[in-house]
Amino acid sequence: MINSALARILFFEVSKETDFPENFQQFYHTHLFCQRGTFQFKFNDQKMECKSGQFLFWFAESKLSDFKFSKNFKSSALLIEKDLLINNIPDQGWSINAQLHSRIFPVKTIGSASEKEKILTNFKQIKERFLETSHRFYEEMLKLQTQIFILEMWNLFANEYEKRKHSLQTGNQYEHFISLLQENCLQHREVKFYTDLLNISAKYLNYLCKIHSGITASEWIKRHAKERIILLLQNNNLNISEISEEMNFSSYSYFTRYVKKLLGVTPGEFRGRFNAK
Questions:
Q1: Does 33 share its domain with 119?
Q2: Which of 115, 136, 167 is the last residue of a domain?
Q3: Start and end of every HTH araC/xylS-type domain (predicted)?
Q4: DSSP character for 200?
Q5: Nearest CA to 242 among 188, 183, 186?
Q6: Most buried pick, 30, 36, 121, 140, via CB within 10 A?
């Protein structure tokens, strides 16, 4: 097992569960490129699999369990400390959809050999930058390299996202609902909005959600709204009134009540706690 004490970035090979640092899910965002074999796991209580030629991304503090590795499994793993990654996201607007998508679909298929090589190059470059502690502008360079890493991974991820988005138009209605939710939850938090777009009843949409995920459509909407609100409140370039307006709340007080119901604290209290970390 790797000793991860104080390391903000770790780059290593994984073939079994004990190759990960202890409690890595709590402190690190995980990037995994599978080169051989298969890896099965549960993500938010759903069974999933990552196999040769696929890329896997987990956010820190994701709900993970039941790891099972094939005997020939081999992968390259990059762990980035959670605050280092989140605090250096280059573009808040694009990042929200990217992050929401990854919270539903953590496994991504990488097509060409050049894309696979690009992933490993990105892993190595940010690790090398992290180790270059003698650089006069070390912290500034590490932050810039983190931003470059994110943009490079987004570029690869965007192709997968667009393919999935297009296929959903003729794919199953549950995934189409999730796609619509990612695009519209900023301003639309009512089940009826989505059932109208899908041309199905609320009862049938709830049935689809329950059989595919175990939770209702309204719960999915709440989860997406919660994620988006958290991301927006973490962006200090936006004041709380602007966030309320961007999310199409009828009043600031209604937004405050909605946030307190979701997060247990008011928007101002949440931002104060986040900035105090």
A1: yes
A2: 167
A3: 175-273
A4: S
A5: 186
A6: 30
In sequence order, the β-bridge partners of residue 65 are 42
Q: Which of 167, 192, 212 is the last residue of a domain?
A: 167
Strand order across the 38-43 sheet: 46-51, 38-43, 64-69
Residue-number span of the structural domain to which 89 is assigned? 9-167
Give a yes or no: residue 245 inside a domain: yes
The total number of structural domains that make up the chain: 2
Q: Which residues, in sequence order, are CB contacts of 56 under 8 Å at separation 6+?
A: 30, 31, 32, 33, 34, 39, 50, 106, 107, 108
Q: Using an 8 Å Cβ cutoff, are 247 and 255 in contact?
A: yes
Q: Which two tokens stand for residue 129?
A: 């930058």
Residues 6+ apart with CB under 8 A from 125: 145, 148, 149
3-state helix, strand, coil in the chain (%, to 5): 55, 20, 25
**pLDDT tens digits in sequence order for the chain, 277 residues long:** 555 556 899 999 999 999 999 889 989 999 999 999 999 999 877 889 999 999 999 988 888 899 999 999 999 999 999 889 988 887 656 666 677 677 778 898 887 888 889 999 999 999 999 999 999 999 999 999 999 999 998 888 776 666 665 554 444 788 788 888 888 888 899 999 999 988 888 998 888 888 777 788 999 899 888 888 888 888 888 889 989 988 888 888 999 999 999 899 999 998 888 776 6
Residue 217 CA to residue 202 CA, distance in Å, equals: 8
Give dist(CA 71, CA 243) in Å, integer. 49
- CATH code of the domain in which 206 resides: 1.10.10.60
